[in-house]
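mind reviewing these tokens:
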Amino acid sequence: MSQFILIPVCLFAGWLLKRGRILPENSAQVLGSFVIYVSLPSLILANVPSMLFEFSFVYLALMPWLVFGFSVILFSIAGKFFVWNRETKIAVTLCCGLGNTSFVGLPILRMIYGEEVTNAVLIADQLGTFLCLAIPGFLLAVGNLPENENKKDQKLFESILRKLFRFPPFLALLFSFSLRLFTIPEEIHSVFKILGETLVPIALFTVGFQLQLPDKDFREKESEPSFGSALAIGLIYKLLFAPLIIFLCYTFLKVNPEHIKVAVLEAGMAPMITASIVSLQMGFRPSLSAAFPGIGLLFSVPTLFLFYTLLENFF
């Protein structure tokens, strides 16, 4: 229970310091860069080289692909029923087909289940969510661009791919596999471990610092065609149906219960910030794409607590 108290405390602290103008405006960018370039790579290098791989890790890596695949089908059907245009369907699929399994998911699950869950979360995030965005996510986005924008956005697509495959945590993951062939000195391992421990408070604080609550402009956007239905259906799927689908599938397949817990909670994380940025950059309903991460994060706190409670009572 104390872990779920710490989550809103960190988020609120970041939000309060932003509104109080106590820290510089660019604090989120600075702290976020520290997490991406130092905390998360250090955490990976501290854990993956000594990781004992289990077959059920395959299910963890597969989880985001399943959630994304179901989202393509569901939002295609919902789009016809609610008469969404193409841009709306792609925006909802990109944003709500993928979850924030790293920046929010990793610190939250480490707080809930402790350090021992780190390896499982890293597999779900780096080999699951990251690659799902990089391959089917981008194929979906680029394949639905207007023909006269293909050349311009092809360059954008190539630029984003280059950035993704230069992503420090992913490079750290690749490098960590080679380190499995060697024995890492305890002094170096301790440095990685200490730096990795900074992830939880800094990441959650940074998310809170960037959190945008609904304002007058947001209420005006709600009057846009299909904005309300797309926002509601996207978040209902991401926060409720996606974790429920994973729970039913993985329980039926008799996956390791500890990995089921990780997979279900990661499936129920708020919409992925990076996917929202991609949708924004490619012009798919910018106001809707921008709304998903912040609004989703607010609603994800009670839904995650709900699924956590159900999982603890079930297993």
